[in-house]
Write a structure and sequence with these properties.
Blueprint: E1 10-11, E2 14-15, H1 16-34, H2 70-84, H3 86-97, H4 101-128, H5 133-146, H6 155-179, H7 183-213, H8 215-227, H9 239-249, H10 254-269, H11 279-306
Antiparallel strand pairs: 1-2
Helix pairs in contact: 1-4, 1-7, 2-4, 2-6, 2-9, 3-4, 4-7, 6-7, 6-8, 6-10, 7-8, 8-11
Length: about 325
């Protein structure tokens, strides 16, 4: 299989990949020193599992088997199927900035850590009989067969996207665990969220380096990503309905995205306080400010309507 053609990563005479690589090396060393080893099999309630129908002649799955609320099941499925598309994410990131050196070392480490998440989540869901395993596998085949293609064609936009996406994924896992009502499930989701937090810190700090290196370019990239953000799992079958149920439950809604994802990132980057920008950067900050005001209004409208929303039951 041929590798993707590298996408543009220069701005004038600045080679962004080369300029940022010392920061990649430092953040990778920090990550390796900080990341805690963990083992998915220790979070699985093996003694509570039962054989399914099929070659083992066990019991077919029934909705009554699941101990989890419907919205939590939706969130777990969305989280899992998003993690399942790791081969496409690896391919996309490799094409953007993973060709050699510290960038490639980081990409391989990130991929190895992310692969644990899908393994652990799927095994937990099967052991708990939390979701329909046949539907889950059919949805996985559909989603992974469709693949994922990044809409961001340069390094600043790609870095800004993975920064926001990792933060959003961290919160989605963490909030799902808190809502599941299962101490073991909460421990597992918290463990996965801790991985995602370290990944977010890696990308966030590289974006901070980029803002120092090319302020206008990275300010525009962060603004573009925030204003047009979609989760990588938006192609999952039934995503819109599932996302609506998840939002109404309070696991992840507009207010969550604003308060637990965007505001902490913007505060850490001190983006809204940045001075000395050129016209492109100033225009981007103005656009970002308007977007945040609109998000406030949308979150308030959603809060007012959410109690009256009637959604189709989970099947």
């Amino acid at each position: 299989m041929s590798l993707p053609t590298p996408r543009p990563h220069t701005r004038g005479q600045i080679d962004i990949l080369t300029e940022l690589e010392p920061g990649v090396e430092r953040r990778l060393d920090r990550h390796l020193a900080t990341a805690r080893e963990w083992f998915p099999h220790t979070y699985i309630p093996w003694s509570q599992a039962r054989d399914f129908d099929g070659p083992l002649d066990g019991s077919p799955w029934r909705p009554a088997d699941s101990p989890l609320p419907d919205a939590v099941r939706d969130a777990l499925v969305v989280n899992l199927l998003t993690e399942d598309n790791l081969p496409s994410y690896h391919h996309e990131i490799h094409g953007q900035f993973g060709r050699e050196g510290a960038w490639l070392s980081w990409l391989h480490r990130w991929t190895a850590e992310e692969a644990r998440h899908a393994d652990a989540l799927r095994t937990y869901l099967h052991a708990r009989r939390a979701v329909d395993p046949v539907r889950l596998e059919r949805d996985r085949m559909h989603h992974v067969s469709a693949g994922y293609r990044s809409e961001h064609s340069d390094v600043p936009h790609a870095l800004a996207y993975v920064m926001v996406q990792e933060m959003a994924t961290r919160q989605a896992h963490r909030n799902t665990g808190r809502a599941c009502g299962d101490p073991l499930g909460e421990q597992l989701m918290s463990r996965i969220a801790a991985d995602e937090n370290l990944h977010m810190l890696f990308y966030r700090d590289l974006c901070a380096d980029g803002l120092d290196l090319a302020p206008d370019l990275f300010t525009q990239a962060v603004t573009d990503v925030i204003c047009d953000f979609t989760m990588p799992g938006h192609g999952i079958p039934g995503f819109r309905t599932r996302a609506a149920r998840i939002a109404v439950s309070g696991i992840y809604d507009l207010a969550t995205h604003r308060d637990q994802v965007l505001r902490p990132l913007l505060h850490s980057l001190r983006l809204m306080e940045r001075t000395g920008l050129g016209p492109r950067g100033e225009q981007a900050l103005d656009r970002l400010g308007r977007h945040l005001e609109q998000l406030d209004a949308q979150a308030e409208r959603f809060r007012q309507r959410s109690s009256a929303v009637r959604l189709p039951p989970r099947t």
